């Protein structure tokens, strides 16, 4: 718990923001180690606090035929090698309460997927590991729901909790990011993270040649959502990054190309520093309000 609290305090104090980044899913040990090396190099050069992200299992896939990853046992071995080789903390998802204890032995941050953000037993099991818990806001949830989700973690004895915006359902195959959520979620009294890649998914929005559907996405708008998020003043940016997103087995349309990562982060750092210099921006609107 002490090491988790230390990292949590480092993330809260990170300027201008901390970064959770990596490939959507573990494809192979070689690929993950290579990606971790490159992303750490960029983050270190820019002075950003990095937590490396990748999933050992993508349990919520559009199709049962979709690639899911190596599974928990093999995936955790690979993530542990990343920690040792590059001395960086790691974050990964859990989908069931039984996964929390073994994942907590390796991961520094346990992530609760958006569809599971209200699952009390999962939140409590994750909290009891003592690790930092990052809860993604459900696509179906109002931002106020995250106050309750964060409180479930705290009531289970863990104060190290963060909440993450990742878009809201807008019709059947689209998500929209409402920047107001990034302010309203502060009522949860914890660090706010913006997922600037999953926010641009188009769930089940892409028809496949052989029949069926898969998730699409709007990769070209990732800079737009990222710029907005840092201008509002989020504490952290979550970004899925891949060296060949066009051929990524999972969520290729919403992974940011590794070759453009440094350029985008440099721009975000500049925007964040300018906006931080102007916060807080308060106006007394009382004279303009109805009695």
TrEMBL record:
It is an enzyme of class 2 (transferase). It catalyses: D-arabinose 5-phosphate + phosphoenolpyruvate + H2O = 3-deoxy-alpha-D-manno-2-octulosonate-8-phosphate + phosphate. GO terms for cellular component: cytoplasm. Residues 15-270 form the DAHP synthetase I/KDSA domain. InterPro entries: Aldolase_TIM, DAHP1/KDSA, KDO8P_synthase. Keywords: Cytoplasm, Transferase. GO terms for molecular function: 3-deoxy-8-phosphooctulonate synthase activity. It comes from the Eukaryota. It is found in: Cytoplasm. Its EC number is 2.5.1.55. Belongs to the KdsA family. This is 3-deoxy-8-phosphooctulonate synthase. The lineage of its organism: Eukaryota, Viridiplantae, Streptophyta, Embryophyta, Tracheophyta.
């Amino acid at each position: 718990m002490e090491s988790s609290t230390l990292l949590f305090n480092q993330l809260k104090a990170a300027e201008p923001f901390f970064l959770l980044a990596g490939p959507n899913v573990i494809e192979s040990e070689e690929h993950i180690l290579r990606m971790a090396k490159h992303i750490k190099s960029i983050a270190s050069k820019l002075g950003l606090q990095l937590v490396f992200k990748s999933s050992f299992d993508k349990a919520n896939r559009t199709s049962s035929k979709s690639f899911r990853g190596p599974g928990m046992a093999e995936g955790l071995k690979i993530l542990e090698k990343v920690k040792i080789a590059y001395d960086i903390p790691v974050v990964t998802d859990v989908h069931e309460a039984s996964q929390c204890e073994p994942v907590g032995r390796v991961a520094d941050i346990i992530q609760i997927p958006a569809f599971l953000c209200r699952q009390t037993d999962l939140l409590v099991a994750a909290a009891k590991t003592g690790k930092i818990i990052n809860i993604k806001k459900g696509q179906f949830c109002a931002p106020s729901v995250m106050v309750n989700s964060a409180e479930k973690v705290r009531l289970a004895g863990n104060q190290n909790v963060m909440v993450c915006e990742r878009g809201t359902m807008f019709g059947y195959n689209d998500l929209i990011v409402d920047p107001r959520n990034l302010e309203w979620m502060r009522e949860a009294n914890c660090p706010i993270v913006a997922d600037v890649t999953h926010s641009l998914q188009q769930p089940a929005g892409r028809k496949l040649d052989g029949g069926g559907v898969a998730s699409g996405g709007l990769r070209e708008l990732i800079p737009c959502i990222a710029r907005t998020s840092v201008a509002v003043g989020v504490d952290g940016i979550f970004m899925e990054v891949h060296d060949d997103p066009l051929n990524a087995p999972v969520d290729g349309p919403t992974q940011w190309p590794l070759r453009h990562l440094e350029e985008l982060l440099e721009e975000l750092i500049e925007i964040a520093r300018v906006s931080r210099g102007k916060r807080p921006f308060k106006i007394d609107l009382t004279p303009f309000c109805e009695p």
